Structure formats: C-alpha cells, structure tokens
Amino acid sequence: MRIAIVTDAWAPQVNGVVRTLESVIAELRAQGHEILVVSPAGVRSVPCPTYPEIRLALMTPAAIGRRIAAFGAQAVHIATEGPLGVAARRWCLSRHLPFTTAYHTQFPEYVAARTGADPEWIWRYVRWFHAPAAAILASTPTIEGALRDHGLPRVRRWGRGVAPVFSPDGARLPAMQGLAGPVLLHVGRVAVEKNIAAFLSADVPGTKVVVGDGPARAALQRQFPDAIFLGALFADDLAAAYRSADALVFPSRTDTFGLVMIEALACGTPVAAYPVPGPLDVLTPDTGVMNADLPAAIAGALALDRDTCAAAGARFTWAASARQFLDALEPFGSALARAA
C-alpha cells in the first residue's frame, strides 16, 4: 500500500510525535508498504512563536497535493494540526479524498501552558481541524473520551510501542553511576508544558537527572543547580539511562500518552506521575504510582518491583501499533487519479 503521511513534526525535532511516526513508518516499511513523508525537511519555514526550535513549514495545498499525487498515494494520514496539516487537509477536502488524523498532544492545554489562552477557545480549532477526518487516531481511552466529549465521535485507538533496545538487560549509563540514591530521572523535551519544575522542586531525597533538551533547559539549570542535565540521549544510551534510574518521574499534565513511561517500564524502571490523561491509561498499581502529591508518588514508585515493570513494558509493541494505524486508514483507490 502507498501511504502519504503529512506531519509538521519531524527530525531533527526530538519529541514523542516524531519518535512515534519514525517507529511506525519503519514497521510499515518492513511489512512492504511504501511511505511518503511530507514534512518540513527541505521546505521554507519560519520559527514557531515562543518555540523557535520548531520550524513551521510554508507549503501550499497545491504543492502538497502534487507530491501526494506523484507518489500515487492510496491513503493519506495527517499527523499534526500545524501549517502542513492544514494545507493537506484543505487539498484533500477540495478533491473529496478521505484522510485520517491523529491527536498526539493535548493541544488546548499545551497552547494554554505556553500562552495563557483559554483551552476552550483552542478546542474550537481542534474540532474544526479534525471533524472532516474519516477517523481520528487517539492513543488512550481517556483521550478518546475527551475527543468525543468535544464533539468528535469518529475516534480509533492507536497505541504505542517500545523498541527492543529498551529492556532490563544491558549497560548502565556511566554518567549516572555513583550518584546519591535514589536516582530520579525525567526524560523528555525540556519545555514549560512538560512541568519539569514540579519534579525538580519536589522535596525528596536522592539525585535528580534530566535527559532531553529544549527551550527551558538554561533557565531550569540556573534555578536548580543541584540537578544533573545530560542533554538528549538516544537508543542504547537512553536505555542505559532508564536502567540506571530508580524511578522515572513524569510530571507532565499535557501528554496524551507519554512514550517515555513505557520505555522506562520496559527497562524495569517504575514511574511516578500525576493522575492525569496519559499516566491514568498507561500505568497500573504494579507499574507506577499516581498522586496529586508528587513526592508521595515518587516514594510509592520506589517500592515497586522492577521485574513486574519490565514484563508490563514489554507488552507494548510497534507491530501492534502499526496494525492499528493500518486498520484506521481510509484508502481511496483510484480516486486520486481523478482528483490530481
């Protein structure tokens, strides 16, 4: 099958959306599917307001349509609600072609965290963007429910997976050896919407380690000089960091899933989090502790069994995620030839 995926989030960005798309695309290609990625790569772009590390690509609907038509796509998936997603949506609608979308981020809460805008105003945009989709892919039951509650009923489940590198067996990260325990880890984009300050200000014993990079890193390093910031890590090094931690602390209130939680679990590392969407759907009493009091959640997570965590994390596979993605697509066969 020839599948066109349009996304405003793509390498060199490092975030859960990019990692999810890369992992699923690799799985689909291994199954013999052909994938066209329409992304900001090689396209004129401007920096995102308040977040210059992210580039907003400028591409007309016609230009995106020419790429999709030349590829001979049999289905279109629009992964993000940014400029490329809007342009692809417009082109598909003008040609009466079906498409699927995905709700990767709690977009209203994300924008509110960065700008102070009323989330309900942002939900109006979310409804407008996703309403024409043949299916909206959501990662958890909680997010499915939120979309339905806001007038978007055509929701399909799209879970996440972990790569084989994330397992309890393997090396520890040298930079995390010899630290005063317990070693508490955060992994993710270092940005205001991730609520990392709540983790770093928690009054708990041990050493706090932050893996990742982003616009808030410099300010957090100044504010919390006792924390260790290791920058972005990948593959073997990231797995080694998970194994070296006594618990992963996930303080975000805006994620729809939280890929780092299942990666940590697959490495045998329990999770502490707030009782919010994402953790509520991913964690069980055996794999994580959720509490409005984050220090209490951390203390509880440290008592959990690592072998149980590893077994639970291993159940999340990219093969299953790719199957769900394929099942949700709405192929349009020869319609593209008539619409091009």
UniProtKB/TrEMBL annotation:
Residues covered by the Glycosyltransferase subfamily 4-like N-terminal domain: 14-162
The keyword Hydrolase appears for this protein: no
GO molecular function, one term: glycosyltransferase activity
Coiled-coil annotated residue ranges, if any: none
InterPro entries assigned to the protein according to its UniProt record, in alphabetical order: Glyco_trans_4-like_N (IPR028098), Glycosyltransferase_grp1 (IPR050194)
Residue ranges crossing the lipid bilayer per the database entry: none
PANTHER family named among the record's database cross-references: SULFOQUINOVOSYL TRANSFERASE SQD2
Protein name: Glycosyltransferase family 1 protein
Organism of origin: Sphingomonas adhaesiva
